[in-house]
Automatic annotation (TrEMBL), chain A:
It is a multi-pass membrane protein. This is Cell division protein FtsX. GO terms for cellular component: cell division site; plasma membrane. It is found in: Cell inner membrane. Keywords: Cell cycle, Cell division, Cell inner membrane, Cell membrane, Membrane, Transmembrane, Transmembrane helix. GO terms for biological process: cell division. Belongs to the ABC-4 integral membrane protein family. FtsX subfamily. Residues 210-327 form the ABC3 transporter permease C-terminal domain. Part of the ABC transporter FtsEX involved in cellular division. InterPro entries: ABC3_permease_C, FtsX, FtsX_ECD, FtsX_proteobact-type.
UniProtKB/TrEMBL annotation, chain B:
Gene3D superfamilies: P-loop containing nucleotide triphosphate hydrolases. It is a peripheral membrane protein. This is Cell division ATP-binding protein FtsE. Belongs to the ABC transporter superfamily. One of its GO terms (biological process) is cell division. It is found in: Cell inner membrane; Cell membrane. Residues 3-223 form the ABC transporter domain. Its main location: membrane. One of its GO terms (cellular component) is plasma membrane. The gene is ftsE. NCBIfam families: FtsE. One of its GO terms (molecular function) is ATP binding. Part of the ABC transporter FtsEX involved in cellular division. Important for assembly or stability of the septal ring. The keyword Secreted does not apply.
Length: 335, 223
């Protein structure tokens, strides 16, 4: 035996490994892996079917929790699709200081009309303003009783850009810029209602997001709790499986699939709820909107959104199950 | 499978010393009984072999490999090579006899054809082939015990451990169960049976290991 000690050691070790066929870790075998997953996939579904009452309750709670933000999302989507088409040729009205001379006002008017984002400026002198008032308002008597014309010079600035709900902020910048001129006492953008609508919509959007997050967390807790109880009720089975050599991932797997099924079924029924609800309100909603605008088509959950809903709910289901299983399987040990 | 205990001790965190300085060597293909009063350490010894517990001193060699060198992830692989009949991990009553016996095969990823073949072979050996569709609840105590044995051997283990397998069975059934273990031993399986039924153990004429308060007080003889 002229071998060096370290070589001899290595040889002995390899002999030991082959002689005793002593696997210290699972060798990955795709066929076996797929087979086990397929079996668990079906078994975990059958387990839900075998406990119909509790399964249906859990699935429906998840479905309701998900259909709430989903439904609001559809509502928001419709409001947006309607309002997105509303364009407005808006006007910024500048009320100049009443002690301003006509020449100064004209100079300002020229300056503003030279701006690249301004289409035109209409100059309304004090007299024109008074005539307009007299002809249209029925204030003649009050106006004629006044010692002098109280109206200021007014510039009506027509911006080049036609705005919709998304670009309204561009006009506000223009209004602010014009309001900062020293001759201008007050500037008003008459697209205010568009702005208000934009504010309401962005408020609605945030509300839906926040609600979605809350309800997704709720679904996580529901799934987690259901899985926890399921683990507890299968305690004996978990122990026997550990005894006969089940790996941790093998023991976890049916519970993760259970979470998957809860999530997918919950998402499916949530989508169904939303589709039914959209169908139910579609006739009156379309009549309502058509009175304002032609060619309106009520939007509902489309295929992409259904897939997204199912994906999110499946993911949430698996994640909720994963948290519960990791916490509770560790507490079940052979003794 | 060859088992060697070298000065093995197990002290629980409570301070209780379940085993101390236990030495014995079980040859490949040997059959032995483990006796002793309850609390003498029989169950602890079996749990160490299953890696349910870890010893606090000494070495346990299984086929020459020190169990302490195995990682947590290797435990399932080890358990698949050992068949066990434990009192407190009995059958699952939510499934048939067939599916109880199939469990170790499912766990190790056998395909359904193989599972059916091996489960039936195991049930045939214990004489319960005609009861595969029954719920174990509907079987007698002796039959349930035999289902447990079928489950322990279905994976063709190299070592069979049984903890009080005849616990509450009448003498005739107990003898039947012991004969079953003997049959498995005859085909090369190493068998270790813990039992306090000294009369029965003596009749079997195999090596007897006796524990008393965690110490091996007798090794050899026929009890």
């Amino acid at each position: 035996m002229a071998q060096k000690p370290n070589q001899r050691g290595a040889t002995r070790q390899s002999i030991k490994a082959t002689k005793h066929n002593w696997p210290t870790r699972t060798v990955f075998n795709p066929g076996k892996y797929f087979r086990q997953h397929q079996a668990t996939f079906i078994e975990s579904f059958m387990r839900l079917v075998n406990y119909p009452l509790s399964s249906v309750m859990t699935v429906m709670v998840i479905a309701i929790a998900l259909s709430l933000p989903g439904g609001l999302y559809v509502l928001l989507k419709n409001v947006q699709s309607v309002t997105d088409q509303w364009e407005q040729q808006s006007v910024i009205t500048l009320y100049l200081f009443s002690d301003l001379e006509d020449t100064q006002a004209l100079a300002l008017s020229h300056r503003i009309s030279a701006q690249p984002d301004v289409a035109s400026v209409e100059y309304i002198s004090k007299e024109e303003g008074l005539r307009y008032f007299e002809s249209s308002s029925g204030y003649e008597q009050i106006l004629s009783s006044l010692p002098e014309n109280p109206l200021p010079i007014v510039l009506r600035v027509i911006p080049k850009e036609v705005v919709d709900i998304a670009t309204i902020s561009n006009l506000q910048a223009l209004r602010d810029q014009l309001a900062s001129q020293k001759e201008v006492e007050h500037a008003e953008l008459d697209a205010q209602w568009l702005q208000r609508l934009a504010n309401i919509l962005s408020f609605g959007q945030r509300f839906v997001y926040a609600l979605s997050v809350l309800l997704v967390v709720a679904v996580l807790l529901i799934v987690g709790n259901t899985i926890r109880m399921s683990v507890e009720s299968r305690r004996d089975e978990v122990l026997v499986m550990k005894l006969v050599g089940a790996t941790d991932s093998y023991i976890r797997r049916p519970f993760l699939y259970m979470g998957f099924w809860f999530g997918v079924l919950g998402g499916f029924f949530a989508s169904l709820c939303i589709l039914l609800l959209s169908w139910w309100v579609s006739a009156p909603a379309e009549r309502l909107i058509e009175s304002y605008q032609s060619g309106f088509q009520l939007q509902t959950f489309n295929a992409d959104e259904i897939v997204l809903c199912l994906t999110i709910s499946a993911f949430v289901g698996v994640f909720g199950a994963w948290i519960a299983v990791n916490r509770h399987i560790a507490t079940i040990e052979l003794q | 499978m060859e088992i060697e205990f070298q000065r093995v001790g197990k002290k629980y965190e409570s301070g209780q010393e379940a085993l101390s300085q236990v030495d014995f060597h079980l040859q490949q293909g040997e059959m032995a009984f483990l006796t002793g009063h309850s609390g003498a350490g029989k169950s602890t010894l079996m749990k160490l072999m299953m890696m349910i517990e870890r010893q606090t001193s000494g070495q346990i060699l299984v086929d020459g490999v020190d169990l302490r060198t195995l990682s947590r992830r290797a435990i399932p692989q080890h358990r698949r090579r050992v068949g066990v009949v434990f009192q407190n991990h009995q059958l699952l009553f939510d499934r048939s006899v067939f599916h109880n016996v199939a469990l170790p095969l499912q766990v190790s990823g056998a395909d359904s054809e193989q599972i059916a073949k091996r489960v039936r072979a195991a049930l045939d050996k214990v004489g319960l082939l005609d009861k595969e569709k029954y719920n174990p609840m509907a079987l007698s105590g002796g039959e349930q015990q035999r289902v447990g044995i079928a489950r322990a051997v279905v994976n063709k283990p190299q070592l069979l451990l049984a903890d009080e397998p005849t616990g509450n069975l009448d003498p005739r059934l107990s003898a039947e169960i012991m004969n079953l273990f003997q049959e498995f031993n005859r085909v090369g399986v190493t068998v270790l049976v813990a039992s306090h039924d000294l009369a029965l153990v003596a009749r079997m004429r195999h090596r007897v290991l006796t524990l008393n308060q965690g110490r091996m007080v007798n090794d050899g003889g026929f009890g």
